[in-house]
Design brief:
Elements (H helix, E strand, L loop, with lengths): L22 E7 L3 H12 L7 E6 L6 H4 L6 E2 L7 H11 L4 E4 L5 E2 L3 H11 L5 E3 L3 E4 L8 E2 L3 H7 L18 H7 L9 E3 H6 L11 H10 L4 E3 L5 E4 L11 H16 L14 H18 L2 H14 L3 H6 L4 H16 L1
Helix pairs in contact: 6-8, 8-9, 9-10, 9-11, 10-11
C-alpha cells in the first residue's frame, strides 16, 4: 500500500512499481450487445482514462465481440460459466494496480475514475471503494429517478433530477465486515478493489448464480475497509432482464448458501457481532427462500433451505417460527413486531 506522501505527478497516488497507479475496467456480458456497447462507451469517455478495459463475454457464441469490433478494448470470450466466472476471467487478465467493475447494463459517469483516483490519494490505507449512483429506466417507474436510454440522456437528466434513492447504505467505513455480514452494502457497478487484495480475497465464488457479489464484498472486508466516494458516479439501469427477475432454486438459495459460507470460512475474521445479532436479517432471507420454493413446488429446495436455516439461526424460536403454517406465522410476526416497538 502507498503512504500519504507517495504521490506521482499532479498528486496522483503511486502504484506498486513506483509509477502512477493504474486501473482496469472489467465488464462481464451475456447476450446484451446493445447494452454492453453503451457500457464500454461510458468507460471510454472517462475524464481520466482507464489504462485497460476488458470485456468478458460469457459464452463463446455471445454477440459482444462483433458489437465491439473496432473499439479500443480487450474482448475475451469464455465458455458460458456465469457472471462469477466472467469476472474472475477478467481479474486473471488484469495487470494494473486496481480493478474496477461495471455490469453490462449500467453506465459510468465520466468523472468516476478521476474521483476514484483522488479518493485513493486522500485515503491510501483503503483498498476498496464504491460510489453512489443514479437509477434510471427507459420509462421511469416508482423506484427510478429519471427516464433515459443513453449516457448523454443520463447526464442531461441529472442537471435537474432530484435524488430519490437513499445511498447511505454504502457508508460502512469502520464497520465494513460487520455491516456486510448482515446484508450486501455495495454497488457492483462502482466497485474498485486493489488487484492484489481481490486476488487474496479469492475473487468471486464460482457456483453461485446470485449473492456472488455479496460474498466478494464480505471476503474483501476481511482484508480492508470499504469506502464510498462523495458523488453519484454511475447510472444503474432498470429493465425487464435484471439479474434477480427470475426466482429459480439457485437464485432463491444463493443468499443462504453465501451466509453459511461466511460463518464456515477459516479466513481472517475482523471484529463483528455474534451470529445471533443477525438473526432477523437471516430469518428474512430464509423466509424469502421458503416462500419461493413453495411457489415453485420445489420440495428439495425447501429442505435445503431448512437445513441451512438450522445452521444460521441460533435461536430455537426462529427455527420453529420459519416452520409455522403461514397464517400462524403472520400473527406471530405482528406480535413480535409490536413487542419490539413497545
Amino acid at each position: 500500500m502507498t503512504s500519504a506522501r507517495e504521490e506521482g505527478a499532479g498528486g496522483r497516488p503511486v502504484g506498486q512499481d513506483g509509477g502512477v497507479q493504474t486501473f482496469t475496467l472489467i465488464i462481464p456480458t451475456h447476450g446484451r450487445p446493445e447494452f454492453v456497447v453503451q457500457a464500454v462507451d461510458s468507460g471510454l469517455r472517462q475524464e481520466r482514462a482507464f489504462d485497460r478495459i476488458i470485456v468478458i463475454p460469457d459464452g463463446l457464441d455471445d454477440p459482444a465481440p462483433d458489437a465491439l469490433a473496432g473499439l479500443p478494448v480487450d474482448v475475451h470470450p469464455i465458455a458460458h460459466g456465469g457472471v462469477s466466472a466472467a469476472r474472475n476471467a477478467g481479474l486473471a487478465l488484469a495487470d494494473t494496480d486496481w480493478v474496477c467493475f461495471l455490469d453490462d447494463d449500467d453506465l459510468l459517469h465520466p468523472a468516476y475514475l478521476a474521483d476514484l483516483e483522488a479518493a485513493i490519494a486522500a485515503h491510501p490505507e483503503t483498498s476498496a471503494f464504491n460510489a453512489p449512483y443514479w437509477s434510471f429506466a427507459a420509462v421511469a417507474g416508482p423506484h427510478e429517478e429519471f427516464s433515459a436510454t443513453s449516457l448523454d440522456e443520463c447526464l442531461s437528466a441529472i442537471e435537474s433530477a432530484v435524488p430519490r434513492n437513499d445511498m447511505s447504505y454504502l457508508e460502512i467505513t469502520g464497520r465494513s465486515y460487520d455491516a456486510l455480514l448482515e446484508k450486501l452494502a455495495g454497488s457492483m457497478s462502482t466497485a474498485a478493489v486493489r488487484t492484489a487484495v481481490l486476488r487474496e480475497a479469492g475473487g468471486f465464488p464460482v457456483g453461485l448464480i446470485a449473492a456472488e457479489d455479496w460474498t466478494m464484498y464480505v471476503n474483501v472486508a476481511r482484508l480492508t475497509e470499504w469506502r464510498v466516494l462523495d458523488e453519484r458516479r454511475a447510472f444503474f439501469r432498470a429493465h425487464g432482464d435484471n439479474a434477480m427477475s427470475g426466482r429459480s432454486r439457485g437464485k432463491l438459495l444463493a443468499p443462504l448458501r453465501a451466509i453459511r459460507s461466511f460463518w464456515r470460512s477459516g479466513e481472517p475474521s475482523p471484529p463483528h457481532a455474534p451470529l445471533e445479532a443477525y438473526r432477523r436479517a437471516y430469518r428474512n432471507e430464509v423466509m424469502t427462500a421458503l416462500t419461493g420454493c413453495r411457489r415453485n413446488g420445489d420440495a428439495e429446495g425447501r429442505e435445503e433451505a431448512l437445513r441451512i436455516a438450522d445452521e444460521i439461526l441460533p435461536r430455537r424460536w426462529d427455527r420453529i417460527f420459519i416452520r409455522m403454517p403461514r397464517p400462524v406465522r403472520s400473527v406471530m410476526w405482528r406480535l413480535e413486531r409490536g413487542s419490539r416497538a413497545s
